[in-house]
């Protein structure tokens, strides 16, 4: 791994800007890609537990991953064979398609990198951001610890599932001897095809998911709600963000037994158009005060009312979720399918946890979903040429 830093420095002389090379979301930059960048249709998440114990070893691993990340997402990939400490990255025809698959890689560090079972790790305990403290438990949680948490996280997104899988596989091989994979999770979005205007994807409940979200080019809202500002916590996280992952299983049988009108009252939006029940079209802001025959048009326990900024001290989150389908639950013989809910924010406690507290207590959707895994990671700022991910953590 030690040679990896040199490899990263060598990246300097190559692709100066991802955009110039036709990359939609360049690997290098102020922020990591895969956050406020257009969602590709495939997701491969993996969490790793570290088996090393010294900070230099951890730095070496992050440097090696940064070098590999630059190589894997490099549009010039096909003309280069990348080998990092004996691990060849372009070892199959599938990875060679990476240049066309719009691969992004996003790295995160869990709280257990800093302290675990009350023991400081890697000498980094004083650098742990307060925002990374564990999330509280929520009403109805059915979390499986084997699918939750982890020291490090990699989010690979691509328009080709094999490319996303293979990127994670390459990083796992590089980490061999330093970290083992704790869990992994695939996700997908509907393939809406090329379109002039972006189409909001539907989730497995059949509803458009992502209508009221922070837009990737809304830099004011991103600064306010997503990117860590100076003064928010330790300086190494400035321009980074915090990622929450919740694996949320859907009870599709109970959902499908409802009428469309019943489903719409649970979400608070029309199924076909995505328009709020208070009227208008998909992007008309919901009117939470509107009444019909003495009742609110968007019911008191509707998902979009309880998740709205109005009821949550104007807090917003950047959602970037994917559908998952993992076969059937062998016990119930029901589909194990639902949402890999992913959101990014400046402060997961003031934002995700506050919203989820309200949802877990009152959301009408709770009768049809259960949260089965949870993770929280600090995603450092973007990788700079010649400087590995999270470099400032160790300075
Ligand atoms: C399986 C679980 C979930 C499903 C099926 C689901 C589905 C939806 C749908 C269909 C919408 C309306 C369309 C849109 O604006 O995107 C929505 C909105 C929203 N959801 Fe969820 N959601 C789930 C879990 C969550 C969780 C766990 C949170 C956060 C704690 C959350 C936060 C939000 C927010 C903030 C909005 C936008 C509210 C607004 O500003 O109008 N959702 N969700």
Terminal Cα span: 19 Å
Q: Give the beta-strand count.
A: 15
The DSSP helix count reads 10
Instruction: Choose one word for the global shape.
Output: globular
Helix content: 10-25%
Assign the structural class, choosing from mainly alpha, mainly beta, alpha/beta, alpha+beta, or little secondary structure. Answer: alpha+beta
Radius of gyration: 21 Å
Catalogue the unreliable spans. 1-22
Average predicted local confidence, pLDDT: 90
Largest sheet: 5 strands, antiparallel
Which strand-content bin applies to the residues?
15-25%
Q: What's the SSE pattern?
A: HEHEEHHEEEEHEHEHHEEHEEEHE
Named once each, the bound ligands are: protoporphyrin IX containing FE
Written account of the structure:
This protein is of the alpha+beta class and 395 residues long. Helix content is 22%, strand content 22%. It has helices at residues 4-11, 55-72, 93-96, 98-101, 161-174, 219-225, 252-256, 260-267, 303-306, 349-362, and strands spanning 42-50, 83-84, 87-88, 104-109, 115-116, 119-120, 152-158, 179-188, 241-250, 291-292, 295-296, 318-319, 322-328, 335-345, 369-379. The relative contact order is 0.19. The structure holds protoporphyrin IX containing FE. Protoporphyrin IX containing FE is lined by residues 203, 205, 207-213, 246, 248, 250, 267, 269, 286, 303-304, 307-309, 317, 338-339, 341, 352, 355-356, 359, 369.
């Amino acid at each position: 791994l030690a040679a990896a830093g040199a490899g990263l420095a060598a990246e300097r002389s190559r692709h100066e800007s991802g955009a110039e090379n036709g990359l939609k979301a360049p690997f290098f930059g102020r922020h990591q890609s895969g956050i406020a960048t257009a969602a590709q249709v495939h997701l491969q998440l993996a969490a790793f537990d570290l088996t090393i114990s010294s900070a230099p070893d951890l730095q070496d691993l992050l440097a090696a991953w940064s070098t590999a990340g630059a190589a894997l997402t490099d549009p010039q990939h096909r003309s280069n064979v990348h080998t990092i400490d004996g691990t060849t990255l372009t070892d199959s025809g599938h990875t060679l398609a990476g240049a066309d698959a719009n691969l992004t890689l996003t790295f995160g560090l869990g709280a257990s990198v800093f302290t675990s079972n009350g023991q400081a790790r890697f000498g980094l305990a004083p650098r742990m951001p307060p925002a990374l403290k564990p999330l509280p438990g929520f009403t109805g949680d059915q979390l499986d610890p084997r699918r939750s948490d982890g020291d490090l996280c990699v989010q690979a997104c691509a328009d080709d599932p094999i490319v996303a899988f293979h990127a994670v596989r390459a990083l796992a091989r590089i980490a061999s001897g330093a970290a083992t994979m704790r869990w992994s999770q695939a996700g997908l979005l509907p393939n809406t095809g090329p379109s002039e205007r972006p189409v909001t994807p539907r989730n497995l409940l059949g509803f458009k998911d992502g209508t009221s979200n922070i837009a990737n080019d809304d830099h004011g809202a991103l600064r306010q709600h997503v990117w860590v500002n100076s003064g928010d916590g330790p300086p190494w996280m400035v321009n980074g963000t915090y990622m929450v992952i919740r694996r949320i299983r859907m009870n599709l049988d109970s959902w499908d037994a409802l009428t469309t009108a019943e489903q719409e009252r649970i979400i608070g939006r029309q199924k076909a158009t995505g328009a709020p029940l208070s009227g208008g079209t998909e992007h008309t802001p919901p009117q939470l005060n509107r009444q019909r025959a003495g009742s609110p048009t968007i019911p008191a326990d509707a998902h979009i009312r309880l998740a709205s900024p109005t009821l949550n001290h104007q807090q917003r989150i950047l959602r970037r979720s994917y559908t998952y389908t993992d076969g059937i639950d062998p016990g119930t013989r029901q589909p194990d399918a639902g949402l890999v809910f992913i959101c990014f924010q400046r402060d997961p406690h003031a934002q995700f946890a506050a919203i989820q507290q309200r949802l877990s207590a009152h959301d009408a959707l709770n009768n049809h979903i259960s949260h089965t895994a949870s993770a929280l990671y600090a995603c450092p700022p973007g990788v700079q040429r010649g400087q590995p991910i999270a470099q400032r953590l160790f300075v």
